[in-house]
Design a protein that fits this description.
mainly alpha; 15 helices; 68% helix
Length: 410
């Protein structure tokens, strides 16, 4: 089969420019995860932030790949992986260093003994360790939420290569259909695992059992890549988004307060874990599409406000990394729940701000200075805009199910 012609450099439109409403969505999602871990009775479904961020991750990372591919006809894989690592690893390593240091200096603290969890956290293998791939399953304690980072990084290792192969033989619209088919295949695989009685740890943490959520976001990004601004297809998508987006977003919001993920075998357990993550990802995709297609809408403008978009852009990743360690540290020190939650929120914001300013920003600037010229040199014409901050801080939650039971072994 012959390779399709190289696409033209994309016009400004759906895949260009920063989507500020999506930054605000990150803030809302990470807040849901925070309250899920600190005030579970209030938001039993706050772990839905995980599903939102998996979908958002697939969407944003595919847009980044397609921007470079459409502009240059290729993807600098080495630079892509280096920039992902520069974006995510420093803040994670800083967390690991601080938690281990404090745990050693203060052996009576809740961070004591966590050094045994550093390797799977820093190596992006916590999800595999949680379901026992390396022996006995572990919870990860303060580092438990890094299982979501592991799922995403494992996906990032495979997806760019697979996408480039697919684009070598098929047009973007066909690749979007293939990607949707892959998502359906992973949905089927998870359904089979659930039917065969696979442990919840395996279903919850598997890179394959979460792949459909990421691929749904990828599919949405590929669809948007094929849309020409002002076309009939664009108008049809906008009309569909206005009809489907608000109900999808309201359903997700209601689920945050009403949905408790099942953790005991039964009909609801089987139905939810077979199809639930896919349904949540589809609702997230509809919400994302609505926000992107209706940037002037009321909801998009609210989420684009600097008070929401700013933290989502700059602090959400580090906030996610630090929120559970901080809360664990405060548990034996502060008895009133409301005060503990308030203190945890304040301290986490301060630590996230320090991480962003002292760790993430300097490394990201260095990486941009080091790697961006190589990308610019390959662009025929004006240099492409710098990539937006990725959604990995995006990345969220421990495993669900009631409060800290979630971090003790799914």
């Amino acid at each position: 089969m012959s390779a399709p012609e190289r696409p033209a450099v994309p016009e400004p439109g759906l895949i260009s420019g920063r989507k500020h409403a999506l930054d605000g969505l990150r803030t809302v999602a990470v807040a849901g995860v925070f309250f899920f871990h600190t005030a579970t009775a209030l938001v039993p479904g706050g772990s839905i932030g995980v599903d939102v961020f998996f979908t958002l991750s697939g969407f944003v990372i595919t847009l980044l790949i397609m921007k470079e591919y459409l502009a240059t006809g290729r993807l600098h894989l080495g630079i892509f992986y280096a920039r992902r690592l520069a974006r995510l690893w420093p803040a994670l390593l800083a967390l690991c260093a601080v938690v281990v240091f404090v745990g050693v200096v203060f052996p009576a603290s809740k961070w004591a003994g966590h050094e045994e969890f550093v390797l799977p956290a820093a190596a992006y293998a916590m999800n595999l360790a949680r379901f026992g791939m390396f022996g006995e399953s572990i919870a990860g304690e303060a580092f438990g939420p890094t299982w979501t980072l592991a799922v995403e990084e494992q996906f990032y290792l495979v997806w760019p290569l697979l996408l480039l192969v697919l684009l070598r033989f098929w047009k973007v619209r066909t690749v979007a259909w293939i990607t949707a088919g892959l998502a359906a295949a992973f949905l089927l695989e998870r359904s089979v695992l659930v039917a065969l009685g696979a442990p919840l740890n395996r279903i919850y943490n598997g890179p394959d059992t979460r792949a459909d959520e990421l691929l749904i976001g990828c599919t949405l990004a590929l669809i948007f890549t094929t849309v020409r601004s002002g076309s009939r297809f664009h108008a049809s998508l906008e009309a569909a988004a206005r009809r489907a987006g608000p109900p999808a977003a309201l359903t997700l919001l209601a689920a945050v307060f009403l949905l408790k993920e099942p953790d005991t075998p039964g009909p609801w357990f089987t139905a939810f874990w077979a199809a639930g993550p896919t349904v949540l990802a589809l609702l997230a995709a509809l919400s994302i599409g609505w926000l992107v297609l209706s940037p002037a809408g009321f909801t998009a403008r609210i989420l684009s406000h600097p008070w929401l978009a700013g933290p989502g852009r700059d602090l959400s990743y580090a906030f996610y990394l630090w929120h559970l360690p901080v809360y664990l540290l405060l548990m034996p020190l502060v008895s009133p729940l409301w005060l503990r939650v308030v203190l945890a929120a304040v301290l986490t914001v301060l630590l996230a701000g320090a991480s962003h300013r002292l760790v993430e920003t300097p490394v990201r600037r260095w990486a941009n200075k080091r790697f961006q010229p190589a990308v610019v040199r390959s662009v025929p014409g004006p240099a492409p805009e710098h990539e937006p901050a990725p959604v990995e801080g995006r990345h969220l939650a421990s495993t669900g199910g009631g409060g800290f039971r979630a971090i003790r072994g799914r």
